[in-house]
Design goal:
By secondary structure, the chain is mainly alpha-helical. Helices cover about 60% and strands about 5% of the residues. It has 45 helices and eleven strands. Strands 1-7-8-10-11 form a five-stranded antiparallel sheet, with helices on both faces. The protein starts with a helix and ends in an 11-residue tail after the last helix.
Amino acid sequence: MRNRTELLKLNAPKYLLHLLDHPEINIRRFTLKALAQLCELPEGPEHVLKDPQNMMKVALQIVKVEDVFVLEFASLLLSELTLQPRGCTQLYAANILGSLFSRMKNSLDPDVQKNCLQTLSNLLNDPVCATAVTKNPQFSWPSLTALAQSKFLAIQRAALKTIVTLICRYDKNLQKSFRSTTGLFELCEIIESYEFRDVHPQVLDLLRHYVKEEENASFFYETGCVQRLLMYLHMALPQMKPCCLAVLTQMSMNKKGRDALFETEVDLEFCEQLLSSDVALLADAALGVSNMTKLLPSAIRMSNTNIIQALCAILEDDAAVWFNVRINALRALVKLCRIIPKAAFSLVDPKTFAALRSINQNYNDSPIQAQRLSVQVYRNLLNYYMSAKGMLNEDFMLELLGILQRPDITLKMMTCTVFTTMMDRDVAKDLFTSCHGESVISKSLRIDHVGLRTSLCEVIIASVTTEGAEKYLQLGTIHYMVENKRIRYVVNTWEPALKAIFRQNPSAKLAYIGRLDIDDFTTDGFYCLKRLSQRFPTLHEVTTTPALCKNPVIICTFNRPDWMRSEDEHSNESINRRSVKETIPSLRFLNLPDDVDLRDHLLKLKMWLGDSKSYHYKELEEGNFEVTYRDRCDEVSTSLKHKAHLIAEYVTGQMNGLGQRDCSMPCVELHLADLMVELNSPIINIGRIKCGGSLERAILYKILADRLAVPCSLHRATSAHAWCEVAVPDVDADDKDGEENYPAGLLRANYVVDLLMRPGRLLPLGGREARLICGPKTAPPYTTSTISELKTTEVEPITILNPERSAKLLYSPPRIGQKA
C-alpha cells in the first residue's frame, strides 16, 4: 500500500493509461491490474475519471477482448471505478451494459462474474443508472438467481447482494417481473440446502425485504413458501431462527401478510415462541403478536392462550433487555387490551397487573418509552367495565398522579387522557379529590405548553365536582385561569374548563365574572361577599381568617345542617335527607346556621303560585331543594311572565325594610352589621335579611327563581349594585287565546326585573327605564380579579322620604372624569 501511495503521488495512472491500447497483450494485462490496484486507494479513481475517454478504453476491453486475464483485470477496474458516481455515469454513457450482462452470465471465469456482479451492484446504487440497468433488454432475473446458487461463496454473496438491491427498490414492475420467475422457489431451495448454509442469513434477509410489499407477501403465501419457512424454523440452527422469525414478523406488518399468517396459524407460533427459552426470539415474537392483533380473528385466537401471562412474565424478567424485547411485549399488551375484553380482564389480575405497574413504580429503571406504553395500556383497560373496576382504587389513583408530576410532557398528556376516560365514573371523581388531584392539576397548569394545558383542561372538565371546584378556588387555580386571558386564545379548552368549574361553584363565577347566566343555578351553599378583595376566598377561609370577618357574607342554605337533625327521624325521611346531603358540597362540614326563613319563602311562594304549568319538566323531586331538574326542561308557557312578576313583588315585600321601611344604603349596612353581631359570624343567611338593597334583593330573586323554574340571570356592576334579568315568553295584552307553549331552548333574557323603583315591573331589556336600573353599558362588572384597578366611590348618607325616589338614588351614575 505504501508503494501504491508513492506511485500515485508520481502520477503513475497518467503513464499507465497510455498503455491500454498497446498491442502486446501482456502489457495490457499488467496495465489493467496496476490501474485496478491504484484505484483501490481513495484518490485513485479520480485520476482515471478525469477524462471520459479512459472509461471508454477500459469498457472496450470488456467488449472486444477475449483474454481471460484482460477480462478479469478490466472488470476489476470497472468495479472500482463505479464506486464513484461519476464512474457510474461514464460507464452508462459507454453503452456496454449488454456486454456486462453477457460476461456476467456466460463467462467461465468466476472472478469475471464476481467483478461484473459488483459493477452491476454499484450501478444499481446510483439513482440515475439504476433505472437504465433494470430496463436493459439483457437484464434478467434467472441469471442472477442462478449465480446465487454458484459453488463459489463470493459469487453467491455478490449475487444475493445485487438481488437485495433490486428488491429494495420497490419498483412495481420489477417486483412483478420477479414474481413471474422461479426466483422465489430457488431462494427457498437455498435455505433448505445445508450445502449453502453460509448464505442462509443473506437469503433470509432478502426474503424479509421481499415480503414488505403486500403483493409479494400474498404471493409468498400462495406459492407455499410460508409453510416451507415454518418447517425451516423448526429444523434450523439456533443462530438462524431469529432471521427466519424476522421474515414472518415482517409479513405481519401488512394486511395481506397477516391474512396469510392467520391461514397458516403462524400467530400461534408467535405465542409459542414467547414461551421458549430462546431470548433472541422474544423481540420478534412479541412484535408479531402485536401486529397480528390488528386482525380480529387472530386476536381472539391468541387471547385463548396464556399470551397475557407470557407477556407479563417477559416484563418481570429483569434479565430481558428493554429494547426491543420488553418494549415489544408492551406493544403487544397495548394492542390486545384495546380490542379483546378477555385479554383486558386477564391483565387486571393482581399478579399480572403488578408486573405492568412495576414499570411506573420503578420508573427510574424504566425507559420513558416503556412508561408511555404502560400508560397507554391503562387507557385501553378503561374501555371495559370489569377491567376499569379493578383500577378504581386509591393506590392506582396515586400512581397516576405521580406519573402526571414527571417531567416528560408526552407522558403527562397521555396520563391526562387516562384521567379523562376514568372520570366517566363518579367513584373516580371522589378518588381524584381524596388524593388531592386538584393540587397536581393546579401545579401542572403553570407549565407553558399548549398541548399539556389542553389535556389538563379536559381533565378539569371531566373531573370537576362541587368539592373539587372549591379546592380549585382555594388553590388559586380559578384566579390564575381568569387572570391569564391570553391563554384562552391559544388553548381551546381553557374557557370550557373555567366554565365547568364555575358551573359547580356559582359563587366564584359571580365574584370573577360579575354575573350568573340563565344556565347557572345557585346551589345550596351559594354565597356572595358584600365587598370583594383582590382574591375571592372560600367560605372556610371566611370563617377562619380574622381579617375577613368584617366583610358580610350572604349565604343560601336550604337544607338543614347535620347537627340540627334529630336521630329519631323516620327511616324514609333519613334516606331522603341523606340523598340531599350527598349533593351538598364540602360546606356540610361547617356548622352553618339554619335558614328557616328561606325555606318559608319558597314554601309560601309555591302555595301562592299554586301548581303552575308555566314550565314543563320531567322527574321533579319535590323533597329536594336543588335545581337539577331545570336541565330537563322541554317547554315554557306564556304564564311564566306573570310568575316572574309575582316573585319580584314577593322579594320586594320581604326586603322592604324594618320600622319605617327605609332601605337606603346606610340602613342596609346597619342591618347587616346587626345581623353579624347577633350571629357572631360574618355569614348571614339570605332569609334573615329584612332590609336589603339592590344586591340583596337580586340575590334572593335569583335563588327563588331558580327553584321556581323561572329562567333568571344575576348581574353585579358595583359593590352594592346588582339586578336580575329574566327570559320569559312575551305576552301580548290583546291576546286572549290562552296559554301557548314555546321550546325552552329558544329562551333569551328579554326583561329586566325592577326590584327598587316600582317593584314587580318587568322592563324590556335595552329600554330607557331598564338602563336606569342596569346603569351605563360601559360600566365594568364588579369582579374580584379587577378590584385593584377600580376605585369605588362611597355614597354619602342621606335622608330619603320617598321610597320610590330612594330606589333611584341607590345607584348613582358616575360623574364625568370619575370611575364607576
